[in-house]
Design brief:
The chain has 335 residues and is an alpha+beta fold. Helix content is 16%, strand content 40%.
Length: 335
């Protein structure tokens, strides 16, 4: 049978195969594709059962196992990861997951790495140069989502503390800061009385020639601000050590979801912050997997979903991140 004839025959069998496979709880999709063997695609057209995560067949019940053939055609199992609707990381989003645009009111924009806890309260974790304004910020400063460069005006957090960047001085371990989630404005008020009073007062102001207007708003509670997961990655609640050759991923404001591999550990490196340079030790380097505005992104192990670092610098050839353990120790934070 020619490849075109086989493809047509597989397509004809797909309706019944799809119905049978989609009934299995671990299957998230069904398609037609080439069978994958030892990481390489073959030329054998197959019925593909897409699963979020492959599992050891010995842990599955008989009804969950994908049969080796269906309607005379070979099957294959393909791991897709969690499939989610994609969002624009530069948009205004409520609640806010990691991976989204944020920024100190005095900077351009960077990335919300992830939500962490300190003293029982939710805090944003990002870089000093993103939410601490490179040592110029003060506790209580407004943190906006999206960041100012992305036309953000709404506060979602207030700066709590940052690890000071020592420019031209002793060794730095991390470029990190946290900001406490705060209640914010979430659009117009649902209260008819508030709206009526505002309209009445605005009418009086207009009659007196004043340009100022009242705008009733409803308050966004903390649970409407915080989404304790990372865009396109999911929930992360553990940290781990980066190792040579480790495959990693990140979700960032500029380049979204990207993947890389740890190329160097125990790195000592000079990092340019515009007019100043800082000396960092105990850093990690991957291939280029980021761009400007991705600073603050959490670096996640591709295999086990644990956080291994906090992205803060890079070039056209590499990405540099702090070790997660150093970040969590310096700020005394947990998930």
């Amino acid at each position: 049978m020619s490849s075109n004839s086989k493809l047509m025959a597989v397509r004809e069998a797909m309706p019944s195969a799809t119905k049978a496979l989609m009934a299995k709880p671990n299957v998230v999709g069904v398609g037609v594709g080439y069978k994958l063997v030892n990481g390489e695609f073959t030329d054998e057209i197959s019925i593909i059962a897409n699963v979020e995560k492959k599992q050891d067949p010995s842990t599955l019940s008989k009804g969950q196992i994908i049969p080796p053939t269906m309607d005379g055609f070979v099957t294959d199992v393909f791991e897709t990861g969690k499939v989610v609707a994609q969002q624009d990381p530069r948009a205004r989003v409520r609640p806010v997951p990691g991976g989204m645009s944020i920024g100190h009111v005095g900077v351009t924009a960077g990335t919300l790495g992830c939500w962490v806890r300190k003293n029982g309260e939710y805090h944003i974790l990002s870089n000093n140069h993103v939410i601490g304004n490179s040592n110029q910020g003060s506790p209580g400063d407004r943190i906006l989502q999206p960041g100012p460069h992305d036309s953000g005006t709404e506060q979602i957090a207030e700066l709590t503390e940052y690890v000071e960047i020592k420019f031209g001085g002793p060794d730095n371990l991390v470029d990190a800061a946290i900001a406490r989630a705060v209640e914010g404005e979430d659009g117009g008020s649902d209260c008819n009385i508030a709206n009526a009073i505002a309209n009445l007062l605005n009418g009086g102001a207009s009659a007196m020639g004043r340009s100022t207007r009242l705008k009733p708003v409803k308050t966004a509670a903390i649970e409407d601000i915080v989404l304790a997961e990372i865009l396109d990655i999911g929930v992360v609640n553990e940290i781990a050590e980066p190792t040579l050759g480790m495959e990693v991923k990140k979700s960032g404001r500029t380049t979204g979801l990207t993947f890389g591999k740890v190329q160097q550990i125990d790195v000592t490196i000079n990092v340019n912050f515009g007019q100043q340079t800082a000396f960092f030790v105990d850093q990690v380097i991957t291939n280029d997997m980021s761009d400007g505005g991705d600073s603050g992104s959490a670096i996640i192990s591709k295999d086990d979903g644990k956080m291994v670092g906090l992205l803060f610098a890079g070039s056209e050839l590499i990405t540099v991140f702090n070790r997660a353990q150093n970040v969590f120790d310096a700020l005394d934070i947990t998930f």
